[in-house]
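Pasting two entries for a bug report.
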Amino acid sequence: MRFALIYLLAVVLPAVPAFAQRGGGGGQGGEGGRGGRPGRPNGNPPNTLVTVARPPPAATAAPAPAPAAGGNGGNTGGGNAGAVSAALIPPFGVTAGVKSSDGTANCVGINNINIPCDCPPSLNTFVGAVSDSVARGAAFPTGNSVADQLTRLQTCIVTLQNFKGGPGSGVGCPAVSTTWKALQAQLQGQA
């Protein structure tokens, strides 16, 4: 009984004024000039709705975990630890800023495919972007097995393709601005 009363007070009653504001047409839908409230042309509902705002959850301050000795903060699998070692990122294999000879403002990537001239990014910029990806949960194992190398490479490729606009944005550099797809195929052949 107490739950039903709390539910009624907390959920149903705050929504009633919003429903009352919507149906200005007295059951006629309030559309296309078919009735409505006086003073409201074409029976359009008002521009404001009553909403119930909930306070944001309380922030909890948890101490940062201490990094393990060496590596990239002890990240051996899951990938949500500290800084990434630049030594674990494969070389790009392409130099940024090499102009295309086709008369466009593009630069040249693998197999003379046009790429933006700021691709690939500087190593320091990219290490920071990979560190951000790892902090968001991307896997970046530090081992030397083929599986670990493939996982690191996949994280690098995804980060490269999204590093300017954030995760899932697709705003970054194309994979052809590196030699990583060939390296990926080579590693997959060893797996």
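Entry 2 (this is the one that rendered wrong in the viewer):
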Amino acid sequence: MGWLKINPRNAVLPPLERAESNDDPRSVAHRSIGSSGSEFSVAIPEGLGFDKIIDGETCPPCTLRDFMNFLLYVEHSAENLQFYLWHRSYQERFNSTTTPDIALAPEWSQEQQDEAFAKLQREHRNGLRRNSAVMSAVLRGTDFSRDGNRTNPGNSLRLSEKHSTRFADRESNPFSTPPATPSRTDELSSTGSRSDAATWRNQAADAFAAAGCPAPFTIQPFRTEIDRVIATYIMDDAPRQLNLSARERKQLLMALSHTTHPTAFRQVARSVETTLRVQAHPNFIRWCIHNGNPPRIKLASILGISTVIGSLVAYIVLCLSSVPRGYRALPAILLVTGIATWWAGHKGICIVMHGVRRRQLSPWEIFGDDDVEMQEDDVSSSGEKGSLGRFASFGTANSYEDQPWVAKYQQRNLVRKLFDKEVWIQEPALRTVHNKIFLHSLLAGVVVGGILTAVFVCVPGGHFF
């Protein structure tokens, strides 16, 4: 489904700067976007900034709901925004808690985080040394030995016989497969019953044990919710597993084994926010600029190119004829229109739809439920927004392949896709961006058309007919 994929040309991004411990994600985003200003034909206006979208200060098609849909259906990374929204809510709820047990969750300081990072680095270096020593012992006397001693044919034969004996049982049954690792996704449940809490606690305990961390105190505030976060976002094979390195995961689990304070998520939260600001948000704005679906934009580009070719043919015919030079400038109207149409289509805009300030709906909007907006306005006490899966902080994996609209949209023919339902563009900042792109397209058409017209007017006539 072409509508559900980012155009590779528009998805080119500046190199993502790694968020250091003291770097603000906002400054990282400004540096990354600013260093590649040539990649943005129109700068992202402040009205469409990341904070404006998160705070709900934008209109369709640039709302938080649209951002979540983009990450879910287009970029397939909705877990980043889901975790970011949960962490913001968790910070507010934790800081507003006045119960005495809050003292059991001390702040995870920057010094403790640096110490944990240094410890993991030492363990990593020691592990590399041990692995190197083991491999040297295993390869000693072989062709791969570091000392360069080659084995004789007898040793190679005995080595091959040893390996063949070791794997004889496995090769005797070619249909045998190793047992599959049980998935933890099916064990998660969306309800908050006691059995679910026990399941999350057991999964969190397994994650702590795998990372070599001590078991945390279960009497700490919000410990059950932290266990659920680990089971949903942090541990291996989690339904919404974040894209974390093994070192980042261990560092986070070390912090969570000591405290449930929001500062334990400092490193991961900063990394996720940087990814959203530097990668997801610019891609989302590029995607919002498109006012038509891919078939409609391709049709507009084809019409623009066809108009340019037709005007060039008209120029050539007039140059070969006996008509006065002044008539050779008439195809300039078609040339300017064709270049402007093609350039706007290259940027994802259909000029016809821009003239009426409208855009085509996305497939999930065409076949969506009318009650979705009402569901998203309900905020539960646990910080989850409504019963809608994509806005719930916890739930199953972010998958949409089984949703009814996917099959329905695939069955639509090309003509119906060209004339999908249209709606008014409500966001003023987005209309301003469209105006700038249209003016740039028109200016490009006038400049290129003027140069070509001057060339064809100055060419001597052929007088062939």
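Dev reply: Rendering is fixed now. As a check, the viewer should reflect this: The two ends are 51 Å apart (CA to CA).
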